[in-house]
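Lab notebook, bench 4. We co-purified these components, and the gel suggests they stay together. Before we commit to crystallization screens, I want a quick structural picture of the whole thing.
Request: model the full complex, all chains together.
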Amino acid sequence: MLTKIMQHEWRALRADRTLWVIVPLLAVIIVYGVYNGASWVRFQQATLDSAANEEWERYAQAKREIVEIEINNKEVSPFTDPRLPSVASGRSGMRYAQLPPAPLSALSVGQSDLYPYYFKVSRQSKQTFVTNDEIENPTNLLAGRFDLSFVIIYLFPLLILTLSYNLVSAEREQGTLAMMMSQPVALRSFVAGKVGLRGIVVLLLAIGFSLAGFLLSGVKLTAEGAWWRLLSWVGMVAAYGAFWFALAVAVNAFGKSSATNALMLAGLWLIFVLLVPSLLNVAVTSIYPVPSRVEMIQATRRASAEATAKGSQLLAKYFEDHPELTAGGKADPTDFYTRSIATQEETERLVQPVVDHFDRQVIGQQSLVDRFRFLSPAIVAQAALNDVAGTSVARYRHFLALVDEFHQGWKFYFNPRIVQKARFGAEDYDRFPNFAFREEPSGAVARRVAIGLIGLSLPALIIGWLGLRVLHRYRLAD
Amino acid sequence: MITRVAGKEFIEMLRDGRFRWAAAIVFALLLASMVMGAKHHREVKRQHDLAQAETRDQWLRQPVKNPHSAAHYGIYAFKPKMLPAMLDRGVDPFTGQAVWLEAHKQNEFKFRPAQDSTAVQRFGELTAATVMQLLIPLLIVLLSFSAFAGEREQGTMRQLLSLGVKKTALAWGKALGIAGALGALIIPATLVGVIALALTSENGLLAASASRLAVMFAGYLLYFGVFIGASLAVSARAPSSRLALVALLAFWIINGLIAPRAVADVARRVYPTPSAFAFQQAIDHEMRSGIDGHDSEDKRAEALKQRVLKQYGVDKLEALPVSFAGVSLQEGEEHGNVVFDRHYGELWDQFERQNRLKQASAIFAPMLAINALSMGLAGTDFAQHRDFAAAAEKYRRMLVKMMNDDMTYNAGKSDFSYLAQPAVWQRVPDFEYAAPSTGWALRHQTISLALLALWFVVAMAAALIATKRMRVD
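Here is the predicted assembly.
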């Protein structure tokens, strides 16, 4: 029976003009969205490549210089001598820690346009390199990007509502409902058939056009992890779509006119997609206010002044903490770099509580959002799509943690060598620590996405089920 | 006649439960956003004032040290907020809040507040501007989509016209009725807003921003007018009120949601900007090898040496009455300034080109006009960010030059081991920034203003023409 209803609906839908307006429109916005996402990914990749290239050339240059200095016994300034650990850990040997775009990053720009995707790690404090923001017109950041996730989150529901706001009401208004119900078919299966067909058509179109967009813009679906991400993405889009179809059925079930249905659904869309997110944002920022970074800047400055003032005292403490460094007798407490290491460590120690306070507040905000995102399917979808695309804050924080670890390792490698006045040969440059990005464990991502999927499907099922129940009492004719 | 029609529309709307609910929600959101805005504004202002005083204090309390170390220590400039910014935060969440002014380098603004928010923020912040740009137009659409189409469907149109009511009178009356109902919402909200502003501001700041606020208010009235006109025109021509609603909602979505993003992407494509990496590479390259690439550091140093020797009429550096280190530091600054002006100038011009393209695209969507105009008057658009950045940079150059000059004329032969007294720090004036005038802000918004006015005129004319030609049933 269901297939028969769907076959009939398919014929009716094909005959309707609406579908033929919607199909090309959907094709255009989806392909445009994917194209925009993909060009941002290409931009990032090109930047990362030129950074890697610069690093490679810098290393080659340093090695050449060392050879030249050693052969000719040249006099070199201690600020530029690539053999010195103080220079090697900074200007001549600093490494780029890179966050490569995930396989499906083209799906959603997410938060990736706000955070740096590579850092130039040196022996300097973390504060000197973490604010490496990409250049972007702030007016563009404010507007947001026209990417695929924008199309899915904002426009896809509108498309679904256009196709389904008068699912039952139109049949009644045309007088065809009573006729239909005189056949041996239940209203519920009739509605299920109508929704089912529309759902399949819309989903196939959305997925088909997106895949076409990927192929056109050169997204590699062969990359590691691309397939399960793509499947999760399809699942998310289906669940998100199901929610809006369920909502349309529920609204239709109240038996109001098509015009009233349209108004109610438009109102619900407004509430879920625009109002709830902005109110939630107000709530989380009031509950966990993040102090202005202005305070952190000042705290850092105070700390560094304090550390510099303590100077020699700090140095004594530093050598107390690291007795192994004084062993060879090469350590020289009056040395500029030795001093700067000691003050830098003290500054970082003094600033840490302030930095931690920021992190706590931001994490507090995030955990509130995570908990209350289920108030709006749009927020659930946004979080999950960003996760699937690898443009979520979670992946960024994961990257930051790796960078932190690398930075510690970098200092651990170079600081003792600076204090002990080691000298590097050309071949030592190949032994410097290198940054390797490890992808977030798939389990963690999959768990977040799965919770999102449940958070969308469950309300969709409940609303749909309630709708079908209420439909039982539907008045077939006016 | 017009007033009678308007009166009837007005009373009918006030009695309509749907309108009352929708208006109450919009009113509550508007109030909430203004209160939040005022709170946020006070907090940011307090922090910035404190920080600005502290950074100055830190500068003054530097111990005896070499002036070049002092220049390296530098000072921070914190971007102040104007009072109307509480209504429209504009690009502020996406520009840095502070810039470090130090020797050798023109720094970028750091710490974009949006980086300390969650992804939900990207759905849009709840500010008075969002409510006025998105929600009130939607309210207008809901109020007026059935203005004529509904009368036709109920059969009252024929009746009405048989009474001898002119169609134009009907159009004006309906428009005024809707405007009146809207006024019932906007006037109290404005009063609350003015009170909130007055409570937020101190010593006459409100008066200083009065002209900005007035123009902003007028801009929003024009924008609402566009929606009233467009809704009436569509309602007069649409075959049914349902189609009128669909058409108007489609316009609202394209105007408010699709256009801003689509145009931002087009602008980025038409006027591309370099990556931060390429930007920095280019600056570094020119710092090293000179603007034309043939003027290496060594060559420049040699040329400077010859020039200074000639200027003081001596034949070796040791005979100079000034510190050559100070002179060459300043020479390095002068070279850097040319490089920075070129690159930052080109980048910021490119941003402004993108923004102008966006303003011009308001011909397709009035949202783009009011959005730019509102930010401009709130003092939160890119042009005013740039103005502040330029002022901070000018201050940096002055500060660094004062330090270098002190070294040049007082260091003698001791160069970098010369120590200056704290009196030298005192001589550097405090950084003071005066926000640009209303006229200045408006000059950056001429396209937006013109297009908004054009939309208003066209929408009103369309409403009049459409009602004149509308079918009776």
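Residues 17-60 of chain B form the longest helix (44 residues). Worth comparing against the SEC data before the next meeting. The mean pLDDT of chain B is 89.
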